[in-house]
Amino acid sequence: MAPAKMIDPFALPRLYPLATPPEPEKNWALFFDLDGTLLEIARTPDSVVVPHDLIRDLAAASTALGGALAVVSGRPLAEVDALLAPLRLPGAGEHGAVVRLPCGSRDEVDDQVPGEWAEALTDAAADKEGVSVERKVHSVVVHYRRAPRFEGFFKHLCAELIQGAASEFEILQGKMAVEIRPKTVTKARAVELLMQGEPFRGRKPIFVGDDVTDQDGFRAAEAFGGKGLDVFVRFAGLPLEVRRWLKSIGRL
Question: Where are the CATH 3.30.70.1020 domain residues in the chain?
Fold first, then answer.
């Protein structure tokens, strides 16, 4: 019997993910996550880089859609505005805890993570190099991208903190981060509020995101007859591809 022929793995065609975004339509209402969607994830939240043409392209796309474009981020709204200045788009901060309507008014939930929980996480992180705690108005998040060995520790600590209050609060597992937030706060809330009024009302909502918190936005968009676009599935996991697609929307 002739010996089996060895297959050279380097001779096989290599498979790379391909970006397959949909063709943009004039009747859309667009909702974008920020970090991991329009911006590349950075080692720390304050070290992200905003590409020089992103603000121009967002403004052009917003104009093309009659103003029906929003940024819905886990960051506080003030941080979103600072990153995208001078734009002040409709949208939401803290995963929908604070929603800015097209008229400029804000709709904000009352629920907040107890201050002692944030203090407990801050104290626990004090001697763990590479870990940072971000205290927001309504939630608190631990970032450990620079120290992934502490992931289990902080997931366990967060679970301990919400024990007895699990009906009111939940733990979110993000990309190298864990967050405690009120259950009343989701990105679906932002979609639902914005879709009630002009210029979003009656349009087809398209929510673009990359993380677990964006799934709520996807479901809300689908409930209004639209859809969610996962960055990994439709844009090869690359914010660069999202930004290329954004340019095409500005040319509608």
Answer: 115-182
DSSP lists the bridge partners of residue 107 as: 99
Task: Pick the closest to residue 139 from 166, 172, 101, 176 (CA basis).
Answer: 172
Contacts 24+ apart (CB under 8 A), 111-117: 111/138, 111/168, 111/182, 111/184, 111/185, 112/137, 112/138, 112/139, 112/182, 113/138, 113/139, 113/140, 113/169, 113/180, 113/181, 113/182, 117/161, 117/162, 117/180
pLDDT average per 10 residues of sequence, the chain (252 residues): 48 64 97 97 88 97 98 95 96 96 95 95 96 93 94 96 92 90 94 98 98 95 98 96 97 92
Location of each CATH 3.40.50.1000 domain in the chain: 28-109+185-249
Q: Report the predicted TM-score, pTM, of the whole model to 2 decimal places.
A: 0.86
**Spatial distance between the Cα atoms of 182 and 137, rounded to a whole number of angstroms:** 11
Cα 228 to Cα 75: distance, rounded to the nearest angstrom: 20
Catalytically annotated residue among 33, 57, 81, 214: 33
Dihedral angle sign, alpha carbons of residues 90, 229, 231, 189: positive
Arch. (CATH architecture) of 28-109+185-249: 3-Layer(aba) Sandwich (3.40)
Q: Coil, strand or helix: which one is 239? A: helix
Q: Under CATH, which number does the domain 115-182 receive?
A: 3.30.70.1020
Catalytic-residue membership of 230:
no
